[in-house]
Design a protein that fits this description.
Length: 292
Amino acid sequence: MSTTTVSTTTSPRKKVTTLTFRQKKERGEPITMLTAYDYPTAMAIDKAGIDSILVGDSLAMVVLGYENTLPVTMDEMLHHARAVARGAKTAMLIGDMPFMSYQVSVEDAVRNAGRFLQQANMDAVKLEGGRERADAVRAIVSAGIPVMGHLGLTPQSVNQLGGFRAQGKTASAAKRLLEDAQILEEAGAFSIVLESVPARLAELISKKISIPTIGIGAGLGCDGQVLVTHDLLGLFDRFTPKFVKKYTNLHEVMNKAFTEYVDDVETKKFPAPEHTVEMTDEEWSAFLKEIK
Ligand code: KIV
């Protein structure tokens, strides 16, 4: 009988970096990204082998219950980013710059981008917009901070876009989007999210630029995909965009568990003996004597 032992341990995953993103694009391997806003979710996503976790400003809607992403602040983003960083070990962590943290001045943009790395252990930041943000992207990158761009449906401009609607559907809008992607690449962005744009436009942009595109509602031709985790889990019940694939319905699962708990408490089924702390009869008798 052979005594040779076969090791079944796999080597731990290496930390994902901007270099990994570039190499995956070169090899034609899809890049995976999801959002997270807390420690346990980040831990579960990281364990699933994801490439990148975005602490998205979607936090405002799916966790904090706002109508859109505009109200969330830098301090709130940092608070959640820190929790995510404690849970994720190998995914590249990207902090989403909230509304008004980079639009007023390039100095603000660099300072606030720096806070994500210095105060919340993020590896990179993401910001929305094209040519109008090129100076901010250039300055943040010059400070040594990787920047992910975001084009197409940019939720922080919801009031300007007239709602959460698909972008780049006319010839002139498509041309402008392609130009914006090229400007962001030239400004030093390491990757660009393309949200809610026609699939054939996203595919063409992905071919025309050398940095990876990450699509959300932008078809298979992107170099990677991102979804809002609360959409994927069925945790956000207000609306589900057409491009979301719901992998489960956690809202229903949670509702069932909470309803059962309420019933258990009301009918005295909980706590059962196994959930209860006991003491010996001797100690109990001694105690009763003590208090007599
Ligand atoms: O805030 C967010 O979750 C995002 C993703 C939709 C890309 O920006």
